[in-house]
């Protein structure tokens, strides 16, 4: 299949993580997303690419952005979409993830988009069922479409959509690296496209062991700020923390929060990213979150095109099988 000017057959029926993708895979998916981007700006926001296909959103964790973005993306591709959450389904009566997915699959579903608190849940599903699986965030493992939409946003802002070569660019990821699936997907994706990744946070949340992934690790945000092109401020995930990782939220915000004052240490063209939801006043001041360097809402917008591309390519790969 030729898409977006590239002669390449996307080989993956599932999208489980960016660790599994090559640089060519990532560039091809982002080029395909670029081709879908204008669908959302038309008066009739629909193309028939997945007409007749059935997509299920299977969300066992809360979500605003990812779930609604997959729903809209499926709808823009003319797929039928079914929404299932842990609370309203028979999971609350003790049904296992595998049984739930197999029963849904038996209704003739083509693709399951899964969010789950357990790392590895999406991979487990992909082995257990025959339809395509897209990981919408599994525990502390990966959130591949978030990583892809972050990289897409950077490529667009840096006018690098032609090459998607991030060589020479430095991106800091700040905060709760240890618990973050967004960090892992960004680390794999950014490095595959040539960027340098600097992880920043307190040693308890950003341990030196992450150097084994090829990243620089720093515990001093003020030292890193002047030498980076983009900064991705992660949410402190209070719900995943099983013990006290820093003395107080106030101390964390003082050392690692990006304020209107602190951002002056960075280059004026620094891009400020956040996957959402934001803990305002902890990771970011309102002045920065809503300021001119923020790409936060652009990231959300780009998520739609990226998810359209992910669903389209995975289902086409499955078809070829
Ligand atoms: N960024 C992200 O995954 O947000 P949601 O939890 O709202 O989906």
Please outline what is shown here.
This protein has 321 residues and is α/β, with parallel strands linked by helices. The chain is 34% helix and 15% strand.
Keywords, separated by commas or semicolons:
Rossmann fold; 2 domains; binds phosphoric acid mono(formamide)ester; alpha/beta; globular; 4-stranded parallel β-sheet; 10 helices; 321 residues; 15% strand; 34% helix
Structural features, described:
The relative contact order is 0.16. With 321 residues, the chain is α/β, with parallel strands linked by helices. It has 2 domains: 2-142 and 301-320, 3-Layer(aba) Sandwich (Rossmann fold), CATH 3.40.50; 144-294, 3-Layer(aba) Sandwich (Rossmann fold). The longest helix is centred in the C-terminal third of the chain and has 25 residues, at 296-320. It has 10 helices and 11 strands. Helix content is 34%, strand content 15%. The protein binds phosphoric acid mono(formamide)ester (CP). Phosphoric acid mono(formamide)ester is lined by residues 63-66, 137, 143, 146, 275-277.
Topology, element by element:
Elements: E1 2-3, E2 6-7, H1 23-36, E3 54-59, H2 65-76, E4 80-85, H3 97-105, E5 111-116, H4 121-128, E6 132-138, H5 144-157, E7 170-174, H6 181-192, E8 196-200, E9 216-218, H7 221-224, E10 230-233, H8 249-256, E11 271-273, H9 286-289, H10 296-320
Parallel strand pairs: 3-4, 3-5, 5-6, 7-8, 7-10, 8-9, 10-11
Antiparallel strand pairs: 1-2
The chain binds phosphoric acid mono(formamide)ester.
Phosphoric acid mono(formamide)ester binds next to α2.
């Amino acid at each position: 299949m030729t898409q977006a000017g590239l002669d390449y057959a996307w080989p993956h029926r599932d999208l489980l993580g960016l660790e599994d993708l090559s640089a060519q895979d990532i560039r091809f998916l982002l080029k395909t997303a670029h081709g879908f981007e204008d669908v959302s700006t038309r008066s009739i926001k629909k193309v028939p690419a997945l007409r007749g296909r059935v997509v299920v959103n299977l969300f066992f964790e809360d979500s605003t952005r990812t779930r609604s973005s997959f729903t809209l993306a499926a709808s823009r591709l003319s797929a039928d979409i079914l929404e299932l959450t842990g609370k309203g389904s028979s999971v609350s009566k003790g049904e296992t993830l595998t049984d739930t997915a197999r029963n849904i699959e038996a209704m003739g579903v083509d693709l399951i988009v899964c969010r789950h608190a357990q790392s590895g849940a999406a991979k487990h599903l992909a082995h257990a069922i025959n339809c395509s699986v897209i990981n919408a965030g599994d525990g502390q493992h990966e959130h591949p479409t978030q990583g892809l939409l972050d990289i897409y946003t950077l490529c667009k802002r840096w006018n690098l959509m032609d090459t998607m070569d991030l060589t020479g660019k430095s991106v800091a990821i700040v905060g709760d690296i240890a618990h973050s699936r967004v960090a892992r997907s960004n680390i794999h994706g950014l490095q595959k496209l040539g960027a340098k990744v600097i992880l920043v946070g307190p040693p308890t949340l950003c341990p030196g062991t992450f150097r084994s992934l090829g990243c620089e690790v720093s515990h001093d945000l003020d030292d890193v700020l002047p030498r980076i092109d983009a900064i991705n401020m992660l949410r402190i995930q209070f719900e995943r923390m099983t013990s006290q990782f820093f003395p107080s939220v106030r101390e964390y915000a003082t050392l690692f929060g990006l304020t209107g004052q602190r951002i002056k240490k960075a280059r004026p063209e620094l891009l400020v990213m956040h996957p959402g939801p934001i803990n305002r006043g902890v990771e970011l001041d309102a002045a920065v979150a809503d300021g001119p360097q923020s790409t936060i809402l652009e990231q959300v917008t780009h998520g739609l095109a990226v998810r359209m591309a992910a669903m389209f390519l995975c289902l086409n790969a499955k078809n070829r099988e």
